[in-house]
Amino acid sequence: MAGSMTKVVYTDDVGVAYWMRLDASNATLAGATLYDGTNAAGGRLPTGIQPRKRYLRHPTTGRERSFVCPDVTQALWTDAVGVVHATTDFGTLANANYVTAGRTGEVMRS
């Protein structure tokens, strides 16, 4: 079951601000800035940009989840491996303390 969606500002690696849709709870975890209709000069995030992601690992199952990181200054992106983040476990819909694992940078697709 998907949560409610919201529009957030995604700043790409060269500093252009775009807007994109993101699950509201994931946007909160990522510390995303909400799009207000004026704070994304680049418009909608182009399909050629694959957003950067941070991976969090469930403490007991080892299952990883990925989260889009719209802003490289936020803790979800800058935290070291092993930092705990409380988020919802989709398997049980209960809260779980996931641990930061790896991350992938932004990718430009042609």
Throw out a few tags for this protein.
8 strands, two-stranded antiparallel sheet, globular, mainly beta
What is the average of the pLDDT values? 90
Across the major sheet, the strand order is 5-4-7-6
| Tally of domains | 1
- Strand residue percentage: 35-45%
Helical residues, percent = 10-25%
- Along the chain, the helix and strand elements come as EEHEEEHEEE
Number of E strands:
8
Query: What integer value in Å does the Rg equal?
Result: 14 Å
Low-confidence stretches: none
User: What is the end-to-end distance?
Assistant: 32 Å
Derived from helix and strand composition plus strand pairing, the structural class reads mainly beta
Helix count equals 2
Largest sheet: 4 strands, antiparallel
Overall 3D shape: globular
Description:
The protein has 110 residues and is mainly β. It has one domain (5-108). 10% of the residues lie in helices and 41% in strands. A hairpin with a 4-residue loop joins strand 6 and strand 7 (94-104). The chain is globular and about 40 Å long. The N and C termini lie far apart (32 Å). The mean pLDDT is 90.
